[in-house]
């Protein structure tokens, strides 16, 4: 689909959608608990839907009505010899592989888009010596056949490929017979996502202990059902926060927890560092324009913010450099390349190398055609840049937003945007 976007001003009050990362964790925790849990609000984005349908394949029962999920957890070892389709969701795939292995059942995992090429090497390294066989059925990582019973023990793994491997193990290891240890062999990146996992597990009565080298996870733990309120999503609210920063009137954002463990809450501090104005308004946050100047940003803990921060950089005086960003190559697109291509298509002075993006801001951006590269965060970033271009912007592959934020263009237009989404 194509989104045809006219320059316009976004302003008004906006409520952040439910966090994708928190939704995955809440549904998985509820599915592993023996009994009924309530999870809300839940939005049927493609990624959350991948996790939901996978959990149903594992015999959890999940009914969603009016954004409220009633989950009946898995009460016995599910039948194996099933196929689980993770669509394009890296989280679903990397969280569910160890869970299937903890049940000791045979599952063939499949995926689409770029998912079959996204790395699973960490599990290939770890699992054979822990009783689990991972077999690639074709040349890519997926389809992948998982067989065998996962054993507890010592797991040595890198911290700088994807934190999703650590989260996946943290869900599975409490179900095993013995105690386990995760030993990180390189510095942990995306650490806040691991903190979110530990906090979600605690809500289901499951404990993980931090150690000097990583984490200790006791075996024989039970997930207890609970009522789980899903947090508002800082990563997706970041697009509208950036729109507020770039406009005179600003945007007021509701529904973001002040005490959240989401690493992407750093967006607020980063927008302040760019020179934006941020103030509290009741329980909400108002973000509006100040005199913007380029900044240096370490992306190691906040990879998902990089595309939209690059857009902000294009409108700030001077240079914005975003570094420690090599893992962006491993996302839905190579985001170092797709972000710079999107900005350049609109006339921005942007370039990247293998670890960073540099944007020299202050040029007037013009009309153009941007490829979303099948990546939701590129489509949404381009839509925010388009507000401030001097003519129409076409986003090719606009439907990519469905991965995490299906109502993105509705929220955009409600705040005064002019996105016309049509078949293309
Ligand atoms: O655990 C999670 O919910 C996520 C972890 C991050 O991945 P990495 O750990 O691979 O950076 C992030 O990019 C992704 O969107 C969601
Ligand atoms: C990288 C992302 O998600 P995942 O890894 O779950 O596919 C994302 O949402 O930007």
From TrEMBL:
Phosphoenolpyruvate binds at residues 20, 90, 118, 164, 335, 377, 403. Pathway: Metabolic intermediate biosynthesis; chorismate biosynthesis; chorismate from D-erythrose 4-phosphate and phosphoenolpyruvate: step 6/7. PROSITE patterns: EPSP_SYNTHASE_2. Belongs to the EPSP synthase family. PANTHER family: AROM/DEHYDROQUINATE SYNTHASE, PENTAFUNCTIONAL AROM POLYPEPTIDE. Its main location: cytoplasm. Keywords: Amino-acid biosynthesis, Aromatic amino acid biosynthesis, Cytoplasm, Transferase. This is 3-phosphoshikimate 1-carboxyvinyltransferase. GO terms for molecular function: 3-phosphoshikimate 1-carboxyvinyltransferase activity. Residues 7-410 form the Enolpyruvate transferase domain. CDD domains: EPSP_synthase. It is found in: Cytoplasm. The gene is aroA.
């Amino acid at each position: 689909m194509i989104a045809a976007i006219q320059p316009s001003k976004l302003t008004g009050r906006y409520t952040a959608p439910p966090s994708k990362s928190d939704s995955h964790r809440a549904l998985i925790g509820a599915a592993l608990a023996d009994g009924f849990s309530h999870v809300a609000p839940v939005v049927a984005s493609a990624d959350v839907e991948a996790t939901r349908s996978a959990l149903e394949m594992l015999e959890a029962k999940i009914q969603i009505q009016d954004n409220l999920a009633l989950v009946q957890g898995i009460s016995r070892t599910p039948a194996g010899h099933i196929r689980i389709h993770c669509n394009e969701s890296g989280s679903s795939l990397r969280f569910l592989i160890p869970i299937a292995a903890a049940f000791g059942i045979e599952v063939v995992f499949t995926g689409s888009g770029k998912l079959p090429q996204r790395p699973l090497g960490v599990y290939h390294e770890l699992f054979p010596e822990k009783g689990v066989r991972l077999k690639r059925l074709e040349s890519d990582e997926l389809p992948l056949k998982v067989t065998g019973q996962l054993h507890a023990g010592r797991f040595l793994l890198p911290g700088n490929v994807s934190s999703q491997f650590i989260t996946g193990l943290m869900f599975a290891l409490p179900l095993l017979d013995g105690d386990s240890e995760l030993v990180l062999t390189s510095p942990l990146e995306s650490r806040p996502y691991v903190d979110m996992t530990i906090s979600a597990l605690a809500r289901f009565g499951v404990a993980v202990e931090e150690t000097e080298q990583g984490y200790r996870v006791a075996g024989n733990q039970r997930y207890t059902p609970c009522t789980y309120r899903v947090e508002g999503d800082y990563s997706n609210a970041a697009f509208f926060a950036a729109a507020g920063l770039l406009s005179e009137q600003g945007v007021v954002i509701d529904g973001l927890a002040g005490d959240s463990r989401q690493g992407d809450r750093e967006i607020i501090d980063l927008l302040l560092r760019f020179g934006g104005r941020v103030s509290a308004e009741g329980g909400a946050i108002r973000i509006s324009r100040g005199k913007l100047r380029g900044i240096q940003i370490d992306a190691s803990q906040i990879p998902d913010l990089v595309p939209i921060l690059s857009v902000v950089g294009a409108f700030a005086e001077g240079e914005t450099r975003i570094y420690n960003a090599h893992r962006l190559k491993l996302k839905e697109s190579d985001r170092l390349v797709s972000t710079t291509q999107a900005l350049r298509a609109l006339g921005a002075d942007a370039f990247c190398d293998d670890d960073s993006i540099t944007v020299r801001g202050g040029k007037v951006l013009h009309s153009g055609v941007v490829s979303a590269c099948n990546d939701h965060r590129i489509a949404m970033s381009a839509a925010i840049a388009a507000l401030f271009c001097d003519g129409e912007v076409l986003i090719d592959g606009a439907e990519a937003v469905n991965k995490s934020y299906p109502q993105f263009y509705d929220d955009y237009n409600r705040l005064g945007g002019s996105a016309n989404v049509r078949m293309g």
